[in-house]
TrEMBL record:
Protein name: Ferredoxin
Entry-linked CDD domains: fer2 (cd00207)
Keywords: Oxidoreductase, Plasmid
Keyword Transferase appears in the UniProt entry: no
SUPFAM superfamilies (alphabetical): 2Fe-2S ferredoxin-like
Domain of life (superkingdom): Bacteria
Keyword Ribosomal protein part of the UniProt annotation: no
Amino acid sequence: MTAVRTFFWRGSEVPFRAGESIAAALAGSNIHGFGKDPAGSPTRYFCGIGACQSCLVRVDGRATEACLEPVYDGMVVMALEDDDA
Ligand code: FES
């Protein structure tokens, strides 16, 4: 049996499978909105290939595309609009 891996999305623990991107892991937990961008527009999983910038989130203080960034155990992911944890 494989241990459940988790990361943190806006302070809540979320399970994921090895190899998933942040966006895929969030979608697997029915989290489809990723907060708002600096212009106030909602961010979400859209193109899935790093082209649209619609899925930007913040990891370790830097903005990154959730559809491209592999998630890892214990990772802390915030919305762009959130204060750092
Ligand atoms: S969904 Fe388009 S860049 Fe991530």
